[in-house]
C-alpha cells in the first residue's frame, strides 16, 4: 500500500503541470526542442490538431501533418481564427506568430 500512497500525489502533480502552463513564464513548462514547438504545445494547438513533430494528437481541427500548410497559411489561421478555431492575434506577439508559423511549415508531415 505504501507505493500507491506515493503514486497518487505524483500523478496529481503531473496533471497540474500538464494543463496549468500558459505563456506566463516562470515555473515548469519546459518543452524540449525548438521555440516553435514550445509555442505549439503551450498554446494548445495539439489539443485540436495532429502534428507528430510536436506530439499533437488532436482531431478537432485539420490534421496538420496531412495539410502541410505554408507558413503564410498558418499565420493567416492564427490571426483570423477560421471557423471554430480561436484567434491568436493579440494573444501571441508578431514574432511568436512568425516562429510558430515557420515551425508548423517545416515540421508538418515529418
Ligand atoms: C479549439 C481548437 C483549436 C485550437 C486550439 C487551434 N486550432 Fe487550428 N483549427 C481549428 C479548426 C476547427 C480549424 C478549421 C477551421 C475551418 O476552416 O473551419 C483550424 C484550422 C487551422 C489551420 C488550417 C488553416 C487553413 O488554411 O486551412 C492551421 C494551419 C491551424 N489551424 C493551426 C493552428 C495552430 C498553429 C494552433 C495553435 C496556436 C491552432 N491551430 C489552435 C481548431 C483549433
Broad structural category: mainly alpha
Q: What Rg is obtained from the alpha carbons, in whole angstroms?
A: 16 Å
Q: For the largest beta sheet, what order do the strands appear in spatially?
A: 1-2
Low-confidence runs of at least 5 consecutive residues:
6-27
Provide the succession of SSEs. Answer: HHHEEHHH
CATH superfamily: Cytochrome c-like domain
Bound molecules: heme C
Q: Could you please say which CATH topology applies here?
A: Cytochrome Bc1 Complex, Chain D, domain 2
Task: Work out the strand percent.
Answer: under 5%
Mean pLDDT: 83
* Domain module tally: 1
**Which architecture would the CATH scheme give at its second level?**
Orthogonal Bundle
CATH class: Mainly Alpha
Largest β sheet strand count, sense and barrel closure: 2 strands, antiparallel
User: What's the shape?
Assistant: globular
Question: How many distinct helices?
Answer: 6
Amino acid at each position: 500500500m505504501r507505493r500507491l500512497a506515493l503514486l497518487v500525489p505524483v500523478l496529481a502533480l503531473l496533471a497540474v503541470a500538464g494543463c496549468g502552463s500558459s505563456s506566463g513564464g516562470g515555473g515548469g513548462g519546459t518543452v524540449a526542442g525548438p521555440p516553435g514547438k514550445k509555442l505549439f504545445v503551450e498554446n494548445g494547438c495539439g489539443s485540436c490538431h495532429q502534428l507528430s513533430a510536436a506530439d499533437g494528437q488532436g482531431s478537432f481541427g485539420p490534421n496538420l501533418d496531412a495539410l502541410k500548410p505554408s507558413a503564410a497559411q498558418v499565420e493567416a489561421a492564427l490571426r483570423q481564427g477560421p471557423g471554430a478555431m480561436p484567434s491568436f492575434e493579440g494573444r501571441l506577439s508578431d514574432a511568436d506568430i512568425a516562429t510558430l508559423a515557420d515551425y508548423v511549415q517545416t515540421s508538418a508531415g515529418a
